[in-house]
């Protein structure tokens, strides 16, 4: 039996609300029956505000990467020129998918821990001949940077006909995105991060210009053909057997978000970000990302006086607090705290207090109690600002 008291604070998978777990335990239904049709028809319009769009949000069975791949294969053909922002492991994954599908890829390499600027995208866009799409990550989970995707999209749209395609796997459901207003054409996401579900569902939100590209695109595709998903959705169906239990859960996730209010959901994430960062500063823990570039769903810390892996090991073994390490060249250099989805200020108060104990043990220099004082103050200030 697994420990049931773990405090899971990785940036995905994330904890599941009890009411969502119960919803997923409902008896199985037939996927071509009336009940499934009603469920799909009920969910479809409620997903749209989460993505800030009036367009369709398609639901696929697969991990987040299947949605990234769907975005690439449906909008491009071999030889197309595309621009990919690479500022971490997930930007790199988008670029790798584009290369795998034989696109002519211009990478914009950004230092890990920094956000891309509108000017950087603008200059590559102007040097490209006929860019078909700009791919970028909303929250770069490997560093905890939130890229200014809306500003980038607005500028790209002023300068070109290029599509703007965003990986929102670790932001959607936790951070606001206004797809329609900013001109973002396509946003993909997954279920196991801020969407409070187990892994297994992938989401693809598609705007009008993206549909034009998808409908004209002759590249062969089968399981990931978005045209088929869209056609079937209009009939209250999915092309293949959907992950029904996860759909039961998604229905409840959307109900929870509606009950709290989407704006409040996003503000709660901002509060958790402010609390975590204030406590880190008070405990002399170097933050990898500047305040301006930091994500509201994940915070990275780059310790200099102790080993990040040793901290993670103690947190896990003694307290059941599960944190993430660094990826690729940042392995061992940073640790990452996920504060997204079914995560609340009460959880932040708890993990900061645990970190204080461990930091003392590791001999990290800071004044006892400073982290706890700062996290409480940040919470109280956050609440004041909201009033
Ligand atoms: C987690 C994540 C992915 C990959 O999702 P999988 O479900 O592991 O395939 C892609 N992009 C970002 C930004 C992520 O955080």
TrEMBL record:
Residues that bind substrate: 336
Single GO term (MF): L-serine-pyruvate transaminase activity
Residue intervals passing through the bilayer: none
Region described as Disordered: spans on this chain: 1-21
Transferase recorded as keyword: yes
InterPro entries membership: Aminotrans_V_dom, Aminotrans_V_PyrdxlP_BS, PyrdxlP-dep_Trfase, PyrdxlP-dep_Trfase_major, PyrdxlP-dep_Trfase_small, SP_NH2Trfase/AEP_transaminase
Keywords, ordered alphabetically: Aminotransferase, Pyridoxal phosphate, Transferase
Superkingdom per UniProt: Bacteria
GO biological process: glycine biosynthetic process, by transamination of glyoxylate
Residues with PTM N6-(pyridoxal phosphate)lysine: 193
Annotated ranges, domain Aminotransferase class V: 28-328
Cofactor or coenzyme needed: pyridoxal 5'-phosphate
PANTHER family according to UniProt: ALANINE--GLYOXYLATE AMINOTRANSFERASE (PTHR21152:SF40), AMINOTRANSFERASE CLASS V (PTHR21152)
Protein family according to the UniProt entry: Belongs to the class-V pyridoxal-phosphate-dependent aminotransferase family.
Protein name per Swiss-Prot or TrEMBL: Class V aminotransferase
Organism annotation: Halobacillus mangrovi
